[in-house]
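The following block was generated as part of the benchmark described in Methods. Ligand: zinc ion.
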Amino acid sequence: MNTANPLQHWLSAKLGAAGERELARYQLQRLRETVIWARGHSPFYRRHLTGFDAARLDTMNAVGELPFTCAADLRRNDPPLLCLSQSEICRVVTLETSGTSGPPKRLYFTRDDQESTIDFFHHGMAVLAHPGDTVLILFPCRRPGGIGDLLASALRRLGARPIAAGPVADAAQTLALIAREQVDVIAGIPRQLRALARHGAVHGTSPVGVRAVLLSADQAAPALVEDLRHTWRCEVFEHYGMTEMGLGGGVDCRAHAGYHLREADLLFEVVDPDTGQRLADGQYGEVVFSTLNRRGMPLIRYRSGDISRFIPGPCECGSALRRLERVRDRLGASPRLSLSVLDDALFALDEVVDFDATLHDGSPPRLELAVQLSDAAAGLDRVRAALIAIPAFDDARGNGGFCLELTATAVATAPTPAKRRMRIA
Ligand SMILES: [Zn+2]
């Protein structure tokens, strides 16, 4: 297996004469420039960084002296974080906050900010797509500057042929499109692709010739990844990113051992979520990042809320870009009963197409679980058995664990919600 990582070209082009061994020095220099730019142009950072001397940022440990930026700062936006006038912004993204009536987060990007995302996607997609490939994009594609649009631009730059189809509305139609267009690579939302795979398996319309799949925009359970790999006989890659990162954050290589991070554009840290102390490689904590090249709305030490760790040691692909372990949970999720625990239990079952979960406070707490099955008659017992094997439910018999209310519906075709989190009622 050839594991050489095309992201090396991206890194070399960014660092130029400095060479990849100089990555840390490059990051510190860019962070100093970002601090000076943000303090000079953003009313929020002018106040937030009062008295901070950028020259102190001469070692990675010194980065820990900078204050964090939080999601609440973005939502409040008073004083504003934006560094430029609106006329210099070409893309605004509004992120509603699920489960609350609070104000949304707004992110602002200049054309150059977006160009750097296209550049990262271009080289990141080269890990799995080749010139001449047909690549089906099942992310939202309608808005100029949105994820589907930027990915399509990156793929054209790579010499591939993107088909910007958007999220799956009808599994049968999408499977027919894959066959008709002889698609080589598919990029989409994990649960949607899983639903496509299940639909194809049940109806005998599984695609042939799909060589690779890229999953992004939501957590991908190991059981889901394994199912896709097995059902479509393809290589499955995972991308990590959030809008605040400028969409792109990291992508795994052919060794499939963690996301190689977009470190020439973003400086990543893992910190203790309670104390805020920087943690050593290998230790689990909250992922924090600073933008290094962004001009419209730079973010300095932004707390992502994602829990993960840096994977210590080099990757077999030889890339100098550090790796982050697959992000499984958000801060605040119970380790005993989180979405990833449910994903692992349920997506291991062929009959499960999808599910929704609502957690109700109480004593014991109650979980409403609505499971969609391709075969309701045979599937329900297996679902119940898989859930009972989760310790949080077993403990419900007297140890203050979780009480379960299970409903199941049979579905011919998968529903197509874009993104899901476990709702807390
Ligand atoms: Zn690698």
